[in-house]
Amino acid sequence: MPPVSRAAVVSHGRTRDVSGALKRLRATAALAGVELLPDDEVDGADLVVVLGGDGTMLRALTRTLDLAIPVIGVNFGRVGFLTSMGPDDLEAGLARAFAGEYRVAELATLDVEIGGTRHVAINDTVVAGSTLGRMIELDYAIRGEPIGSLPCDGLICATPAGSTAYNLSNGGPVLVWGLDAAVLSFVAPHSLHVRPLVIGRGSDLVVRNASPEAQATVLIDGHAVGDLEPGADVSLCIGDRRSRIAMLPEQTFFRRYADVFGAA
């Protein structure tokens, strides 16, 4: 990749936690001759540097979705699977990135439509019961073909980037970065037979709230975007836009997977 001239900085907002890291980042950028931009000037950057965890990475990836600007992360969060380096590697890792020594993974997103409004999911879309502890019933169809109706606590539709988040905690399979696919997994299904399902591009999904009375909520990347009254539905498909995660060359998907989720 070409050397970086301008980099925007996005942090998780807890200044007391990253103030020291910001000073280290400024010093590293100065040595490399890189101009640092605030997070409200992301569109003028060659690279976005995130100081935070996976939530901050998602925020930066969403903001750069239409800009084709890669995002590289230094983990100041908890899991940090989407980041490329830990706090101790900030200087050395970012010096390499500023010199152009990084690669970019382009990852599938989800287009979501609810109530006539369109959204984009970087990580996942969740349909869950609006009342904690109250089961809902969901119908789902793929490519217009009904698959079934299932009492459950909810359904997760995750991208490859999101397959290592809620989907993984729920027992769903991990999708390797680069796959043009999404995975469906039900949350606490009232069934002995239901299993997660991996779908590819063109396998449009419609999920309908088949509960006679219970309301459901649709969440995109952890944020509620609308409610599903009984009989209402939400449509999902693999989108055309791609999120762009920058990684140091040695930080492959499998290296990250082993480091974060592998057995000790």
Automatic annotation (TrEMBL):
Q: Which InterPro entries match?
A: ATP-NAD_kinase_N, ATP-NAD_kinase_PpnK-typ_C, NAD/diacylglycerol_kinase_sf, NADK
> What name appears for this protein in its UniProt entry?
Unannotated protein
Keyword hit for Nucleus: no
Q: Which one of the record's GO molecular function terms can you name?
A: NAD+ kinase activity
Q: Name one GO biological process term.
A: NADP+ biosynthetic process
User: What UniProt keywords apply to this chain's record, in alphabetical order?
Assistant: Kinase, NAD, NADP, Transferase
Source organism per UniProt: freshwater metagenome
- Note whether NADP occurs among the keywords: yes
